[in-house]
Specification:
This protein is α/β, with parallel strands linked by helices. The protein is 35% helix and 18% strand. The chain has one domain: Alpha/Beta hydrolase fold, catalytic domain (Rossmann fold, 3-Layer(aba) Sandwich), CATH 3.40.50.1820. The chain is built from six helices and seven strands, in the order E-E-H-E-H-H-E-H-E-E-H-E-H. Strands 1-3-2-4-5-6-7 form a seven-stranded mixed sheet, sandwiched between helices. The protein is globular, with a radius of gyration of 16 Å.
Length: 204
């Protein structure tokens, strides 16, 4: 497994970020958060699931790996990085969701989800939230208020563990980007998300 590292090696916290279903670990979104967290004194490690690593080498696109492969990859990443009590795990969309499935067993210090896919867009009757009711790991979900994978109204109807806090980003979509008419910029929204993420990781 190959990691992309940012930030000081001696940091008391390492934030481990996995990518979403369609974009790699060096996407502009993940690069912004990884580099921003590193500037706050955190060590950041990014990695790719097998299907995305294969795409990088072959150029051939295919869908995500089976759920068991995704969870196994997360377990391998955690094992390679060591000292689980110093790790905050998570990532973008699917990467954060898979981390949430193994966060408690991993004994991570925290879970950071950047745009959580609470439900498939347009399918509120098919939520991906059952395991979140009993989650014990301290968790921050940074979510846009217009995210089709989970708006404030959607999330209000879920049973979420008290260990979970949702930081809402004004007018943000699944990438936290606002509409022009909102008067906000993508940079502002990403910066707000970064501020919340950094404060959470440093305190975890």
């Amino acid at each position: 497994m190959e990691f992309l590292f940012d930030g000081p090696e001696g940091s008391p916290r390492t934030v481990v970020l996995a990518h979403g279903a369609g974009a790699p670990m060096d996407s502009p979104f993940l690069a912004f958060f990884a580099e921003g967290l590193a500037c706050r004194g955190l060590r950041v490690a990014r990695f790719e699931f097998p299907y995305m690593a294969e795409r990088r080498h072959s150029g051939k696109k295919r869908g995500p790996d089976r759920p068991d492969v995704l969870t196994a990859t997360w377990r391998d990443a955690i094992a390679q990085l060591g000292d689980r009590s110093r790790l905050v795990i998570g990532g973008k969309s699917m990467g954060g969701r898979i981390a949430s499935l193994i966060a408690d067993e991993a004994g991570a210090a925290g879970l950071l989800c950047l745009g959580y896919p609470f439900q498939p867009p347009g399918r509120p009757a098919a939520p991906r939230t059952a395991h979140l009711a009993g989650l014990k790991t301290p968790t921050l979900i940074v979510q846009g208020t217009r995210d089709p994978f989970g708006t404030p109204d959607d999330v209000a109807g879920y049973s979420l563990s008290p260990a979970i806090r949702v930081q809402w980003i004004a007018d943000g979509d699944h990438d936290l980007a606002p509409r022009k008419r909102s008067g906000r910029s993508q940079e502002q929204n990403w910066r707000d998300g970064l501020d919340a993420a950094a404060a959470f990781a440093l305190a975890a």
